[in-house]
Design a protein that fits this description.
single chain, mainly beta, seven-stranded antiparallel β-sheet, 22 strands, 51% strand, disordered N terminus
Length: 387
């Protein structure tokens, strides 16, 4: 038996493919007298390898994974890609008086300016329960003067104030004050201000509030209102205990391929009288929805909707601890036997089962140690004896 990546996803849950292989192997292993004839039920219980819940987690705007499972000191954690954004502020935007002197070499007028920059999580990522992360702000000065106006006198020096807040709740995470008494921000330089965040929940993203006080002094510069300063905000090195996400009609698709011994196909076809299956999912994932299984002779035939090209197991659900049963006809079993390669796929449409504090529905809280266990038992009726 081999298991390779199919067109519907990675080769992750092996429950269905292994069960089909076990079922067919069990049938071929029956060493029985050729007479008389008996109809015998063969039961093949099977427990799958655990299935990771990583496919439930949000993707970025390009459809790429941003959350992965890792391990620190033997403990499973989520690791999240850096989340960042940036914005440019022109001198003309920050300093209205500077517009009067555009193109002139004069003492740079004083100004005060405040704005904010949001680093928003992907739409379906509601919150992160952070173990640790680095939150930072970068300021790049591409003006031709120092807006902090360095001066030993606090009344004459400028300053920059930065506050970082939780985007969803508005809670202050940290703040920093950069004074021209202690340091400057010369033309063409960049400064990064960082803070370490531990044991907090961040919802929606980050909001960085930026305030600059640049008093008038004797600095003379060629006023160019198109010159700018660049503000960037980021959160990285993100280690997470749990993630809350919107799970709403999310489609999960996986497929596998199973080898069947060609030597036994004719014997199986002659002996099969019918079959049934019993499926149970065991998990504590806050998600439910509809599940279908497709068995076909090629990846392209999976979920084709053509009953001559696939055997479809329907009316299944992601519901945990629900025993789900169904029948397989002689024709369906024989078609599976006739497939040169047996492809097995599953498709689920999932919904979150949690309601958020604000009444938002279809939410799910995920932890990195959560897994889905599939238990499949196939019962096949075969006729043995002298046929």
């Amino acid at each position: 038996m081999r298991c390779t990546k199919g067109v519907f996803g990675t080769c992750r849950s092996r429950s269905l493919s292994f069960a089909a292989g076990a079922w067919l192997s069990a049938l071929t292993a029956c060493a029985v007298p050729e007479a008389p004839e008996w109809d015998v039920d063969i039961q093949v219980p099977f427990s799958s390898d655990p299935v990771s819940i990583i496919d439930f987690l949000p993707l970025d705007e390009n459809g790429d994974t941003i959350i992965r499972v890792s391990s620190v000191d033997g403990v499973s954690i989520f690791v999240v890609d850096v989340q960042e954004d940036s914005i440019n502020y022109s001198l003309g935007q920050m300093c209205s008086d500077c517009r009067t002197y555009h193109g002139s070499a004069v003492a740079v007028p004083g100004f005060d300016y405040v704005d904010s920059l949001d680093v928003s999580f992907p739409e379906k990522l509601i919150s992160l329960e952070i173990l640790s992360a680095r939150v930072g702000t970068r300021l790049r000065n591409d003006l031709n003067f120092d807006p902090l106006r360095p001066n030993a006198d606090p009344d004459l020096a400028g300053y920059l104030a930065i506050a970082v807040r939780d985007l969803g709740s508005g809670v202050l995470l940290d703040s920093v004050l950069v004074s021209g008494v202690e340091q400057g921000l010369p033309a063409g330089t960049e400064k990064t201000f960082e803070l370490q965040v531990n044991g907090v929940e961040i919802s929606g993203g980050l909001r960085t509030i930026f305030y600059v006080h640049s008093p008038e002094d004797a600095q003379v510069a060629q006023i160019d209102t198109a010159m700018n300063a660049r503000l960037a905000s980021f959160i990285d090195q993100i280690q997470v205990e749990a993630v809350t996400a919107l799970v709403e009609t999310d489609t999960l698709e996986e497929s596998f391929i199973v080898d069947v011994d060609e030597d036994v196909r004719d014997e199986l076809r002659d002996r099969v009288q019918g079959g049934s299956y019993e499926l149970e999912l065991q998990h504590d994932v806050e998600a439910d929805g509809a599940l279908e299984v497709s068995i076909a002779g090629s990846a392209g035939d999976l979920f084709s909707g053509d009953p001559t090209r696939e055997v479809r197991l329907t009316d299944l659900a992601l519901t945990p601890y629900l025993v789900q049963t169904g029948q397989l006809s002689v024709d369906e079993v024989e078609r599976v036997i006739d497939y040169f390669d047996v492809y097995i796929g599953y498709r689920a449409i999932a919904f979150g089962t949690r309601t958020g504090a604000g009444g938002q529905i279809n939410l799910s809280r995920f932890t990195p140690d959560q897994l889905i266990q599939t238990r499949l038992k196939v019962t096949t009726q075969v006729r043995i004896g002298d046929l």
